[in-house]
Amino acid sequence: MDLRITTLAERPELAGDIWQMKDLWPEFMLYDPVGWANVGRIVADFPEYVLVATDDSGQIVARAFSVPFRLQESGREELPDTGWDQVLLWAVSDLRHGRTPDTVSAIEITVAVDALGRGISGRMLEAMRANAGRLGFADLVAPVRPNAKHLEPEAAIHEYAFRTRESDGLPHDPWLRVHVRAGGTIEKIAPASMTVAGSVAQWREWTGQPFDTDGPVEVEGALVPVHCDTARGYAVYVEPNVWIRHRT
Prior knowledge:
The protein is α+β, with helices and mostly antiparallel strands.
């Protein structure tokens, strides 16, 4: 497939259309409060860090969000255990306070459902890394969501992330493998990268599951079980991610 990949700054007329793609994100992930409050700001405040891919017909087939932030700042210095949520908050805070960014973090690469299986995600990753370099950054980091981990929700992320194939030594997980093939290095685990809390009624609505027993509940698309407390009427999902660093 021939793709045209540009920044949103180059094609601002696509700002509304990038949200219309049909994707495979589990519904409950839309209710992370950090994402709910701030993802839309990426389009408005960081259009140079948003990539859009269109096919020959002009149809949007993929989007990629990244943000600039300052890692070498007092109280930071290393990639956060709270991963995706924290780096997005840092980026928004740094912009508001006028801090000069020194690193770019990936936030999302999403491919339209009808364009999956064509290697587009890898091409978007390469374009994101090139874009970070073009903007003057030496490093692109990514709190990666291992895309096959949901098949093994009980597996420990510290084991899963470093599991490799005997045939070539590359990561067992397909999305981690794409990153490593592209030159990325697994740096650390973000054990609490995203947190979604809600009432049991909300979780029933999001998942179609009863949420009527205490303890861990396996949910389709979740990387780890959701913790349910029926007596108190809530459930909490804490998603682990894997920090990967790319040199641009």
